[in-house]
Amino acid sequence: MILMRFFIIGFGQAGGKILDMFIENEKMRGSNIRMRWLAINSARTDLMGLKHVPVQDRILIGQTIVKGHGVGTDNKLGAKVAQEDIETILNAIDERGTHDMDAFLIVAGLGGGTGSGGAPVLAKYLSEMYSEPVYAVGILPAPEEGKLYSLNAARSMISLLKYVDNLILVDNGAWKFEGTSLKESFAKINEEIVRRLALLARAGEPIEEDVVGEMVVDSSEVVNTLRGGGISSIGYATTLAESSEKKRKGFRLFGRKEEEEIEALENDKPMKIATLVRRAALGRLTVPCNIHSAERALVLVAGPPEHLDRKGLEKAKIWLEEQIAGVEVRAGDYPTRRTKYVAALVLLANVTDIPRVKELQRLAAEAKEEAEEAEKMRMTKTIELFDEDIEPLI
């Protein structure tokens, strides 16, 4: 069995936080996945705030330009400092080794400065220097974060799509949590991202000794699903895996016939798995999109082995084949006794109907036009301050 081994690079504040949470998650579950990672930032305080990324795996860039204070929301400056220190970044990647990695995964917020500007620069060099695929997880800003963030995201997204083998988008605007502060909401969104990445990384992980997988998905199938560029979205759903003993306790309220009917329904594992996959595909996606516009799809179901079912996976696969534009749907399971839940992940690859991206382009165009108009007005008012009779020096 082949393991999906990512070299994960958290670029900028959002990327670093997600990487930090991912490492914490892997430590908590005692994972034996062999991965490598780096956190890259132009702000020293952001790097210092990480709790789980080893200090030796943190890289501060742009010290000669921004002196460790970050680039603010200037993603052009973010690209500049990444370009200036690209040799330092690439050397750090080489030092950690790439010979047994399946893919690079760059994680970055696209609305800010460092990650938004630096991620495309790194993607360009990685795509030129390595044969392994380069993927990116890009977090889109919510509309209320302002037009500048939308302009940054549009620039970054267009640049990333030139160099990455696939761009997985996450829309902050679609992941609002009522009754929480912006900081709390972002933390919850990061948790959702980590859950999906952790399950995707399970593809091909050595299964525990006493359990057997029904349908195995390995790293090559993940790579084939994400091949060819474009934008992808991920759906996810979970359900509690209750034991048969717990179910029977509730049956005492009914007669024997009713108990048998309820037990038959509860034990319909194929239907439960198929329904869970539908919930994942039709529920809250990382970026809302038209499922019918997806070119390929991947289904991965994880949970206690007695709650997984090959027929259910096959039913889900057939249903998904009917939903997407293409015909390539891969499906597999990851049996584990380390959880009380059954989780389904649906990766929709190369989706083309994404309303949020169209809206982002519109906001970015407005922001660019307003910025240009403001600059013209500023220059006009500045010139008007001086008398025309004064001659300039040069």
UniProtKB/TrEMBL annotation:
PROSITE patterns linked: TUBULIN
Single GO MF annotation: GTPase activity
Domain (Tubulin/FtsZ GTPase): residue spans on this chain: 5-204
Location within or outside the cell: Cytoplasm
GO cellular component labels: cell division site; cytoplasm; microtubule
Tree of life domain: Archaea
Alphabetic keyword roster: Cell cycle, Cell division, Cell shape, Coiled coil, Cytoplasm, GTP-binding, Nucleotide-binding
Coiled-coil annotated residue ranges, if any: 357-384
GO BP field: cell division; microtubule-based process; regulation of cell shape
InterPro entries: CetZ, CetZ_C, FtsZ/CetZ, Tubulin/FtsZ-like_C, Tubulin/FtsZ_GTPase_sf, Tubulin_CS, Tubulin_FtsZ_GTPase
Residues reported to bind GTP: Q13, A14, G15, G16, K17, G113, T114, G115, E145, N172, N190
UniProt key word Cell cycle: yes
Similarity comment text for this entry: Belongs to the CetZ family.
Protein's job: Involved in cell shape control.
PANTHER family: CELL DIVISION PROTEIN FTSZ-RELATED, TUBULIN-LIKE PROTEIN CETZ
Name of the protein this chain belongs to: Tubulin-like protein CetZ
Origin species: Archaeoglobus fulgidus (strain ATCC 49558 / DSM 4304 / JCM 9628 / NBRC 100126 / VC-16)
Recorded name of the encoding gene: cetZ
